[in-house]
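User: I'm writing a tutorial on reading structure tokens. Could you give me a worked example: one chain, its sequence, then its tokens, then a sentence or two explaining what the tokens reveal?
Assistant: Sure. Here is the example chain.
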Amino acid sequence: MMDETRAEAARQALFCEQVLTKSGSNVLLETLREAKSVAAWEHFPQGDVFDPETGAQWYYHSHPPQEGQAEHGHFHCFVRPEGANGPIHHIVAVGVDPYGRLLRLFTVNQWVVGDNWLDAEPTIALLPRFDLHFARPSYLVNRWLSAVVDLYSEEIRMLIRERDRVLAEHQSANDTPARDDRALEVTSELGVDLRQMAAGLGV
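And here are its predicted structure tokens:
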């Protein structure tokens, strides 16, 4: 991706954060604003978010609280290239802290999300489809998440390829197929800093 394209994605992500901050909110608060309570692993918003024009879909869930844990939870990002009733493919997960600040990007084993499997290159080809123009639960959250995936698309490509390499080399203790092995959950990950990335792009 050209640096100017990445810079524009960084500007979009930062703009969304700035508007939310000015409004006394943040990405995480906006995501959970309809929730009456927040239970670990429960999907937010209920029913997930799906943009019928692009096939992009996501949900957020949190972790059980653990001492010293920086990450509150993560957004699981998918694409349904054939529409709402078609196959669903996991693209990447986006981890955030309790203030909605970006912490990491990672991929997961198939059993974690139960998606329809695609190898790395067909999965990578879907990345441009993760682009949401949708009001629920918040237009700013949808644009922020779209911008983050766009900004880090090169890194996400590497993570997806690493996912397949890890799975190909994985040997389970009891001959369980790699994509079903509960001992292997996160298949690749990368710590990220949005402001540092933006500064490096001159934003």
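What the tokens reveal: The mean pLDDT is 93. The CA atoms of residues 174 and 181 lie 9 Å apart.
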